[in-house]
Design a protein that fits this description.
By secondary structure, this protein is of the alpha/beta class. It is built from 13 helices and nine strands. The strands form two sheets. It has a seven-stranded mixed beta sheet with strand order 1-7-6-5-4-2-3, with helices on both faces. The chain has a two-stranded antiparallel ribbon with strand order 8-9. The radius of gyration is 25 Å and the shape is globular.
Length: 465
């Protein structure tokens, strides 16, 4: 590995100057000394092979209904089909794609099949696929502003776009006055992460450090986290990562009488009991569209409870949050203005290929204080000026993908009107499906339909599926 240090005095504060031309100069110099290029990247070869891959994927989608949705292979099937060691010599792309068709496709569960009804479907689209191509093609590592200014600034912009589409309060935006200024004078803002799991870990750590900085780090053994018995399991995993005592995670009970939503009084009683036991309520996770039954927790009431006990309120709207771009579903987010943070996943319902999770935080300084680190190799005038956003300090990892260009391309390709119609069409289909299921005595509707249906069927063995 060779380390090169540029003359900082020759670099403009907000621009790497002409240093972008230096790698080609270095490569030319190496070739002059007998070093040969490996042919790893050739524009015309990329054009040719990309067409082959695009055709392969297009053919896959044309035939996707012919595949069984769930893979029929047995564990370990691939070991018997592929070599035990890596190949010594390169293979042509045509041969590789034949192996994909012969060996890989049989082992896939086809998430984009029209017959796929498990979990939450990870909707893909042409726009999402093309956005992912741009993301991979540019292959920038935008950990700070200087590493790729467009990656940072487009992310800030598209997060404000999404916030506007969801009619989120201005306290979650970079740009509450809509005057074109996306700097950090305002403490709200958003970041694109890979998943809700990441979003909850980051916000839980921010909440933890906020409390411990004032009460002492020995108090970590007293912190308590609350969700419902319908809350996604990633909250429990986040507790493990953040060092919360496993006995201090509270999955509070819900019932069919309330549509499996978490009642504020239930949360209030749990927090009161913990305070009486000298414990500290830390974090309450409310959900808009639970994984099991699509339940929507009452944000207004839960926000009041969180305020009473000074707990951080996070709104997990990973799934049903997408529906809130439609005015008729926006009421699901009523009360979000009282939350400390909110996340939703465009890769679930808004036609954006995996992965893409939007996280908004009301006080971004708390997130940065908890996750920020520095190193001499990251020093640059932009960061020192405090005029730019360094997204490395808003996430767990240092490196990050240019996900913003994918979401930006999807929004531009379909427009808000197209995305609304996409959601409304799915809701109409869900309502129709629920009506059909309700007439079949083999099925039971478990929870009333809001944006999706949930049911169970009793089979001859008395089990439920």
């Amino acid at each position: 590995m060779v380390f090169l240090q540029a003359d900082q005095s020759a670099v403009e504060p907000r621009c790497p100057g002409n240093s972008i031309d230096r790698p080609s100069t270095i490569m030319g110099s190496l070739q002059d000394h007998g070093e040969e290029r490996l042919g790893l990247f050739d524009a015309e070869e990329l054009r040719k092979q990309a067409r082959l891959v695009a055709d392969f994927i297009a053919d896959y989608y044309k035939a996707i209904e012919s595949y069984p949705v769930c893979s029929q292979v047995q564990p370990g099937y691939l070991c018997s089909r592929l070599p035990e060691t890596a190949p010594i010599k390169p293979a042509p792309l045509e041969a590789i794609l034949q192996d994909v068709k012969k060996h890989i496709l049989p082992g896939l569960t086809h998430w984009q099949s029209p017959s796929f009804f498990a979990y939450f479907q990870a909707n893909a689209s042409t726009g999402g696929f093309l956005g992912e191509m741009l993301c991979s093609g540019f292959n920038v590592v935008g950990f700070n502003w200087l590493a790729s200014p467009a990656a940072t600034e487009l992310e800030s912009l598209v997060m404000d776009w999404m916030g506007g589409m969801l009619n989120l309060p201005s306290s979650f935006s970079f740009n509450p006055s809509n005057n074109g200024d996306c700097k950090n004078g305002h403490d709200g803002g958003g970041v694109i992460l890979g998943s809700t799991c990441e979003a909850i870990v980051c916000t839980l750590v921010a909440a933890r450090d906020k409390v411990l900085s004032s009460m002492g780090y020995d108090s970590i053994t007293k912190l308590v986290v609350y969700g419902s018995d319908q809350t996604h399991s990633c909250l429990q995993k986040a507790c493990k990562i953040a060092g919360i005592n496993p006995n201090h995670y509270r999955p509070l009970a819900t019932s069919s009488k309330t549509g499996f939503a978490l009642l504020p009084d239930v949360a209030r009683r749990a927090m009161a009991s913990d305070v009486a036991a000298s414990l500290i309520p830390l974090f309450l996770c409310a959900t808009v569209g639970t994984t099991g039954v699509g339940a929507v927790d009452p944000l207004h009431g839960l926000a009041q409870v969180a305020k009473e006990y000074k707990a951080w309120l996070h709104v997990d709207a990973a799934y049903a949050g997408s529906a809130c771009i439609c005015p008729e579903f926006r009421s699901y987010l009523d009360g979000v203005e009282h939350a400390d943070s909110m996340s939703m996943n465009p890769h679930k319902w808004l036609l954006t290929n995996m992965d893409c999770c939007c996280l908004w935080v009301k006080h971004t300084s708390l997130l940065v204080n908890a996750l920020s680190t520095s190193a001499v190799f990251l020093d640059n005038p932009g960061t020192a000026s405090l005029e730019v956003i360094d997204y490395k300090d808003w996430q767990i990892a240092l490196s990050r993908r240019f996900r913003a260009i994918k979401l930006w391309l999807v929004i531009r390709s379909y427009g808000l009107s197209g995305l609304k119609e996409h959601v409304r069409r799915h809701v109409r289909l869900a309502m129709l499906f629920e009506k059909l299921v309700s007439t079949d005595q083999r099925f039971e509707i478990v929870a009333p339909s809001s944006t999706a249906s949930c049911w169970k069927r009793s089979n001859p063995q008395g089990r439920y599926t």
